[in-house]
Write a structure and sequence with these properties.
It is a single chain. The protein is an alpha/beta fold. Helices cover 42% and strands 12% of the residues. It has helices spanning 10-21, 79-103, 137-153, 175-185, 204-216, 235-246, 257-267, 270-277, 285-291, 299-313, and strands at 2-5, 26-30, 42-45, 63-66, 107-111, 159-165, 167-169, 201-203, 224-227.
């Protein structure tokens, strides 16, 4: 039995399908209505992931896939929001890890974030050997969760596997990709055609396949894996693929990067613009070599499906 948290979210829904397809028994722990999940999963309803008696959900679970977390909002300067991020992303994760140890669970797979490595790359891709350098509060809490879980589980028999995905793409992707699709759909001018950066993404179905491997592959025990598809794409290419799915022509404008960043600084949008201007390249060689992982669907196809879904939702 594999217990999955965050099963009704974007990544979680695909992960559950991948686990079932591979023949696993799956139990999901969810705050939301589970009616959209496959009929052959067990469900355990919870009110708050940070306040759970895990003894019931963990019964007979040999593995926990922990996807649930707080993201997609910026808690900068808001101590209340920062405390909530820590409560959900750190404290709840540690509580689950301790409960899993007590329940005799053999493996915990923790979904973290490539943001733990940093916000951009210069000269070489991120690898598992790089020193963590989180720059935003979300990534800081994910790194804290990693460190606390390693500490809590260090003296136990439970194996810990950590996965840091790049930005996850696919139909229905939330966050920055959803906002970008909305801008393309609205025919907003996007000043990124002069940017020749490289950004790694991971398709949601490819990530789901990796998470399934991490739940059962012997070579995954105790490892950290970075997850990204190849090749990396420029911001202009990402926009163009989304636009192709939307069946529109994107309004890409050529603006020098220095001018774009200067304008962003004046408007207080430096972080958002940097994510579209800077490079962030991720190596997934470790997962490919040790686990035999490969992309389920080409990343360009995932971006086009994201665009097509955004067109349907309009």
């Amino acid at each position: 039995m594999i217990l999955v948290t965050g099963a009704t979210g974007f990544v979680g829904r695909h992960a559950v399908r991948a686990l079932l397809a591979a023949g696993h028994r799956v139990r999901v722990c969810t705050r939301r209505d589970p009616s959209g999940l496959p009929a052959d999963v067990e469900t355990a309803r919870i009110a708050d992931v940070a306040e759970v008696d895990w003894s019931g959900p963990l019964r007979d679970a040999h593995c926990v896939l922990h996807i649930a977390g707080k993201a997609h909002t910026d808690p900068r300067g808001d101590t209340g929001k920062q405390a909530e991020f820590r409560r959900v992303n750190v404290q709840a994760t540690v509580a689950l890890a301790r409960a899993a140890i007590n329940a005799g669970t053999r493996r915990l797979v923790l979904v973290s974030s490539i943001g733990v490595n940093g916000s951009c790359t210069q000269g070489h891709p991120f690898t598992e050997a790089d020193a963590p350098a989180p720059t935003d509060f979300y990534a800081v809490t994910k790194f804290e969760a990693e460190e606390h879980v390693r500490s809590v589980c260090g003296g136990s028999s439970m194996e810990v596997v950590i996965v840091r995905p790049a930005l996850v793409a696919g139909a229905g992707a939330p966050g920055s990709l959803a906002r970008l699709a909305g801008a393309v759909r609205a025919r907003a001018p996007l000043p990124f055609s002069a940017i020749h950066n490289q950004r790694s993404l991971v398709g949601v179905r490819s990530l789901a396949a990796l998470l399934e491997l991490c739940c059962r592959h012997p070579a995954a025990a105790g490892r950290l894996f970075l997850a990204a598809d190849s090749p990396p794409l420029s911001s202009a290419e990402i926009i163009s693929e989304i636009a192709a799915g939307l069946a529109v022509r994107p309004m890409l404008l050529s603006v020098p990067v220095t001018l774009l960043k200067a304008i962003a600084a004046v408007l207080g949008r430096s972080r958002e613009v940097s994510r579209l201007c800077d490079s962030l390249v991720v190596s997934s060689e470790t997962a490919q070599t040790l686990l035999g992982w490969h992309a389920e669907v080409p990343i360009r196809d995932e971006l086009r499906e994201l665009g097509a879904a955004a067109r349907t939702d309009a």
